[in-house]
Write a structure and sequence with these properties.
mainly alpha; 70% helix; 15 helices; two-stranded antiparallel ribbon
Length: 317
């Protein structure tokens, strides 16, 4: 093989990548993928181990036998199926309202000129960068003393603590969702809206029949991000549904039950000389059960999610 052919094989050409570039790209992809998958693989392997395997230094990845009782015990400890159903409620219902309100707000910012529009956009950006810990105390006091037409309607301890802010466009990370819809609706040609208005379509009809069908990629991205953030949230769930609240209607989440199990396990083993290996495997099994619904959701909607992110021009977090 002469030097020109060797250079073409290693460096490639305009039509085809070279061997050297492919090696570098796949090495980076495998390395990055391993960094992300290593904790999950370790957690999965530990969740199937017996206490003897955890104490055995020779057993690192492959357990001596598959120990399914860890998952059975985790399901009982966390009241898994009941917690799963309540977690779906807390994540799904606010997500539906949040998608509706943020899409309408983003459309309004993109299509209409109204007084102090730039100021409201600046306030929106400011709300996005303010840490939620700063507004934690006033938010709790406001929700705890909330009333409608003179009737006390406290939101603490109920699912309305999540639904009510979502209806008003103040759900988890609503600011970034409004900006996503704002940027997406700006890309829709104004001529389409003007043509619909000439044909007699009003503002609401133009929004639902013209803009929203074109904004399906943004809808998918916002819905998935919102659902995942509501599902994984533990800060506001602890604040609104924690055991210290006097009003509580039995709502809980899988992560909250897992946190309670870890707290009770830590208190029970605080004076022990060494950690309990059985409970370590149990914790890993419970954590796997907590993330399993999200993994299943991603596997089902993987293609739609990737295509929507690509069309919407959004990077994942």
């Amino acid at each position: 093989m002469n030097r020109a052919k060797l250079r073409k094989v290693l460096m490639g050409s305009r039509e085809k990548n070279g061997l050297l570039l492919n090696v570098v790209v796949y090495t980076l992809l495998i390395s990055i993928g391993f960094v992300y998958l290593h904790p999950i693989l370790h957690m999965l392997a530990t969740s199937f181990m017996r206490p003897e395997d955890i104490l055995d230094a020779g057993v690192r990845w492959i357990p001596s036998s598959v120990h399914l009782s860890n998952y059975r015990s985790s399901i009982l400890v966390m009241d898994y199926w009941n917690s799963l159903w309540k977690n779906v409620q807390i994540a799904l219902f606010p997500t539906i309202f949040q998608v509706i309100t943020t899409s309408m707000a983003g459309y309004a910012f993109a299509r209409y000129n109204f007084p102090l529009k730039k100021l409201w956009l600046a306030i929106l950006l400011f709300a996005f960068v303010v840490p939620p810990q700063i507004t934690m105390i006033p938010t709790y006091v406001f929700y705890n003393n909330f009333s409608i037409f003179g009737f006390d309607f406290p939101l603490i301890g109920s699912i309305w603590a999540f639904i009510f802010p979502a209806i008003l466009g103040q759900g988890f990370q609503s600011a970034i969702f409004i900006l996503i819809f704002y940027n997406f609706h700006r890309q829709v040609p104004p001529s389409l809206i003007e043509a619909a208005e000439i044909d007699g379509a009003g503002h609401i009809s133009s929004f639902f029949r013209i803009s929203m069908p074109l904004a399906v990629p943004a809808l998918v991205v916002v819905a998935l991000f919102s659902f995942v953030w509501y599902w994984n949230d533990i800060f506001w769930v602890n604040l609104f549904l924690g055991p210290g609240n006097s009003r509580h209607d039995g709502l809980t989440t899988i992560l909250l039950e897992l946190q309670r199990f870890q707290a009770s396990h830590g208190a029970a083993t605080a004076g022990a000389a060494a950690p309990d290996p059985f409970n370590e495997a149990l914790r890993m099994a419970g954590t796997m059960l907590a993330i399993l619904p999200l993994i299943a959701l991603y596997l089902v909607l993987q293609r739609q999610f990737v295509q929507s992110v690509d069309k919407a021009g959004i990077t994942g977090e």
